[in-house]
Specification:
The protein has one helix spanning 24-77, and strands at 85-87, 90-94, 101-107, 110-115, 120-124, 127-135, 138-147, 151-159. With 164 residues, it is an alpha+beta fold.
Amino acid sequence: MTCFAERRTPNGKKFLQNPPGFTMIELIISIVIMGILGVFTFSFLGDSMGAYVRVKDHKILYDEARIAMERMAIEIQNSSRSSITIGTSSITFDQPSSIWNIRYRLNGSTLERMVGIIGYYPIADNVSSFTPTYSSNIVTLELVLTQAGRGTVRFRTSIYPRRS
C-alpha cells in the first residue's frame, strides 16, 4: 500500500507541485506562429503599398491624357468640317469664333497646341503617339502616353464636327 502525503502551505492551501505557466516548448511554438503571422502581414502591407504607388503613378498619366483629349474633342467638335486638315501626327482646324487656326502636333514626346501666330505650347508630355484621322465627317483621335515606371495609357475618341 502506497501512501501519498499532501503538502500544504502555511495557510492550509494545497501546494502545487507544477505551478501554472507555459513550458519552454509552448513559448517557442507561440513565437514561431507569431513570426509567421508577422511575415504574412508585412508582406501583404508591402504589396498593398506597391499597388497604391503604381496606381497613383498611372493616374498621373491617365489624367494628363484625359485632359488633352477632352480639350481637343471640344475644340474639334466646335470647328467647321471643311477646315479640318490632317497631317502626320498633327491636326489643324478653324474655330468659328476666332480668325486664327488651331493646330495640335506631336513634337518629340510632347503634344503641342498652337493658335494663330502666338506659338506652340505643350498640353501633354510623355506622348509616344498621336494619330488623328478624318473620314466620313468623323475625326478620330488616338493618343498614347508612355512613361517608364508609370505604364502606358491609350485614349481613342471619335468626334463629329458640328459646323459644315
